[in-house]
Amino acid sequence: QVQVVESGGGLVETGGSLILSCTVSRSKARMNNIAWYRQAPGKQRDLVASISSADSITYADSVKGRFTISRDNGKNTVYLQMESLKPEDTAVYYCSARSTPWSPSYWGQGTQVTVSS
Asked: What is the residue-averaged pLDDT of the chain?
């Protein structure tokens, strides 16, 4: 069973920074397609950033220039570095992992990010 664990959330002031981590347990099929999503109260879950097995990276327009996704293959971990945080970035951040773009996703439990104004 693949396990996905997020960490690094917390409370930060506007303009502050946080680094989220997503660690995926080792499995037969390498879960190299990783995406960060976020869900604010009463809203749908939206894609924030993704990195493919070929290291192709995408960002939501709302976070471009402020968030950076990266991976450490040796640690099976993907990071989401978040800078210049805004109150509208407040949400539960989820990590999803899958072996191919058309495979089922495995989800973590989420980590809360709160940006105070």
From this structure: 94
